Amino acid sequence: MLVFGVDVPLVEIVFVLSIIAGLLLLEAIVVVMLLMKQMNKAKKVLELVENLSSSILSIKKAEIEELDHLKVGGGRLRPVLSSPVRAPVSSGTVNRSSVRSKTRTGVRSRPIPTKKQ
Predict the structure, then answer these.
(1) Which one of 12, 16, 54, 89 has the lowest number of neighbouring Cβ atoms within 10 Å?
(2) Structural domain count, the chain
């Protein structure tokens, strides 16, 4: 067979094309395997997110039922969380004149409790 004026045997051309096709097939197999692995990871993440959302939903339902019970029955508040959430304590000084509480007669200043050192 003549290719650009050079005599090239047909067997070598078929051999080179088969090597190229084999490499492409191998690459396609690797890509499909990686996609399947990523799909399984995404499926696991989806299941975990669904589990998390159902857990959060059940906690919120329990909190709502407890608040409804407190409104209707006037029972004692029991903690929902295992550890209480505390507000951060400021380490700076507080201007006592800026803290005011309303009374029937108007606005009056009230002292702020401070930590004893």
Answers:
(1) 89
(2) 1
